[in-house]
Amino acid sequence: MVIVNYLFMCLIFGTTFLAIKIGVDAGLPPFFSASVRFFVAGFVLFIVMTVRKKASFRVLWSKESVITGGLLTFGTFSTLYWAEQYVSSGIGAVLSATGPLMILCLQSVLLKQKLSKQSLIGCLISFCGVGLLLLPNMTATFSVIWMTACLLIFIGEIGYAGGAIYSKNVTKRFPTTSPILLNACQMMYGGLFLFLLSLCTETVHIENISEPKAVGSLLYLTIFGSMIAHTLFYWLVSKTDPIFPSTWLYVSPLIALAVGKFVYNEFVSWIMVVGGVTIIIGLLVINFQALRKMTRRQEQKTELLNQ
Predict the structure, then answer these.
(1) What is the pLDDT of residues 98-121, one digit of tens each?
(2) CB of 135 within 8 A of CB of 275?
């Protein structure tokens, strides 16, 4: 059951980038659609946790929920949604996978944590992969707005990294609170911030929202991308450990490239594939020790069960 749910989670996360692209291409205002997705998903999850008597308004009204919502949801997805108007879903997915690299960079610059030699090598490998991924587009279809879109995805991942680091404060303050509730609260705040940004920058037309592709995109992202996939993630954390489900970052970007190519006919060259794989290899090098410990724990559990 663990493997089935893990593969299902990777598939959902890998296809959300194409769902975003389909939505914005169908005319959905990026900030508005992102706001609806996250606020509705967070609100529904909060109601579910309330019915199960696991919700807390103390968590909802906390500054920690506001800050994580601003960084993890608003910071990450405001840039990604806007950028996918101009870049392919595959590129958006692979560039979004650089989040762990940004975490290392922030820890090194802001927290003065010294990078290990292995982490430094992994970062260099992944950044080389980024160069390979972007190279075909820079030479064939280069434009200022395309480059700006790619840069904004990186900036969004800095927001993600900041939120991931800050979330340690959240778990310290609310150690007994369900991660699903914490995620629901931050999604609601992130959705609210996105809606405020939409009010200031976008004009929403009913005819665009009612387009079948737009509706399908919004429903898929809300139900599958934000509710089901994240619930599966936290279920996997409870059944295994935090490292194993996080390895979706190594699988989903390649799924996104393949889905974008074969479903939406996006441009994908062999250099881009090599770049994507190189980024994943860099991430694996960075997390090699943690993954090895996880594998050893799984082997020990298997041995105990077989005894």
Answers:
(1) 887 888 888 887 777 777 788 788
(2) yes
